[in-house]
Amino acid sequence: MGVALLSRWPIRSVRRHRLPSANRVEPVALLATLDHPDGALHVVVSCVEWEPDLAEDHLAQTRALAALLRDPALDGPPPVLLTADLNAGPDGPEVRALTDVLVDTWVAGGGDPDAVTLSSKNPLAPLAAVKQIDRRVDYILARPGTAGRPLAVRRAFLADTPVAGVYPSDHDAVVADLAHDDRPWATGVRGEQ
Which of 139, 151, 137 is nearest to 175 (CA)? Predict the structure, then answer.
């Protein structure tokens, strides 16, 4: 399984962070630093375990992501972002490990509470992922880059319409428009790897 990041701003650097796993060779999170006009914009991209028998690894991986995203070395004017397939619904302990320290931009941006990012209606969806199917399992989470600075989420929505009948991925893309001081920081689009 791989992860990638596409950016409209130049990518200054990318670091790989291994995630805990007793079963896979090297699950990773990518920490990319983007050359945003207002300063270094740190974005972490990841996909964590989904199989029910790997629940311990799944929770350990989201806890490791939370620790990475709390790192004060990432502080600065722009927010710190996580775009990830967390393979868990918003109410699961795996996601709570992250939302204890990060803002779920979907909720903050008024996204539909019944939204689904892994839909059984999508012909590419892995129906074997029974626990994840027909749930919101993809996220854009954020924290202010500098403590005490507000983080505004203008809106959150899904990019879920096939083009000419073709789905670009087995997951629908999550989009969140973020702003600070009435200026846009970033538009985050989360597609599947």
Answer: 139
CB 10 within 8 A of CB 19: no
| Tokens, residue 82 | 């996580």
**φ, ψ dihedrals at 161, nearest 5°:** -100, 125
**What confidence tens digit (pLDDT) does each residue in 117-139 have?**
877 787 777 777 767 777 888 99
Task: Tell which residue, 108, 88, 111, has the closest CA to residue 98.
Answer: 88
Tokens of 144: 């202010």
Question: Quick one: tokens of 169?
Answer: 């991925």
The CA distance from 119 to 89, in Å, is 13
Instruction: For residues 39 and 30, give the distance between their C-alpha atoms in angstroms, rounded to a whole number.
Output: 19
Q: How far, in Å, CA of 101 to CA of 36, rounded?
A: 23
DSSP one-letter code for 88: S
Q: Tell me: the pLDDT tens digits for 8-43?
A: 999 999 999 999 988 777 778 999 999 999 899 999
Q: How confident is the model at residue 182 (pLDDT cuts 50, 70, 90)?
A: low
| CA dihedral (83, 85, 87, 88) positive or negative | positive
